[in-house]
Amino acid sequence: MNAQRLSDRLTRVASYVQLGSIVADIGSDHAYLPCYLIHHQIAKKAVAGEVAKGPYESAQRQVLEEQLDDKIEVRLANGLSAIAQDDLVDTVTIAGMGGPLITTILDQGFEKLKTVNRLILQPNIHAKAIREWAMTNGWNLIAEEILLEEDKIYEILVLERGEMKLSEAQTLLGPFLMEARNEAFYLKWSKESAEWNRILGAIRIAQSSREVQMKKEEIEEKLKIVKEAISK
Ligand code: SAM
75 and 23 share a domain? Predict the structure, then answer.
């Protein structure tokens, strides 16, 4: 992967960035995504935010090598503190982290989202945390994708401002994803179900405490939801 040729995962993330956007890519690593967005004249300006020094320096190097430093600002910062109000960022991308870390970043920088009208989030795990966050914070899912790349399954969630009410099944599986039910969706939930069944087996032979009992019920509920969705 490089800034000219992104992974399928980041190409799909890029496909949800609207023409003429001002983008902040948080946790940008090599800044491949913002470089791609500027090269392809999708975004007009971008901020690449990185909390870690090594990736921050890679991002700086990449942007300079590609001579995009007039369009992309690389900033060493934690989460959305990379954004200043006068950047007028309208789109935030956060890719390649766990869902709970993504929601922590959004919560901690809530003020910085004032000018933002689209969030494109690609959690590696626990996308459910993002759907829950969206419902309680006035964001509405407008699209979702699930894809398989190099044996890993990724989800992409695209949010705009608005109210959203999801059922328990939709929150776990994704309202768009459970409608489309593609191959990656089946694969993900078959694997998750196998893991949950393994845990249930271990729980059955463990000493039963109230906590264990609650975990067991939670897993059984999730298994029921998934079974219903993939047997349709
Ligand atoms: N976004 C790129 C992608 O999807 O290929 C890089 C993903 S990489 C696995 C995650 C990056 O997020 C790391 O470079 C890490 O330093 C950065 N990161 C983690 N927490 C962060 C935070 N709170 N603020 C900014 N960057 C963060």
Answer: yes
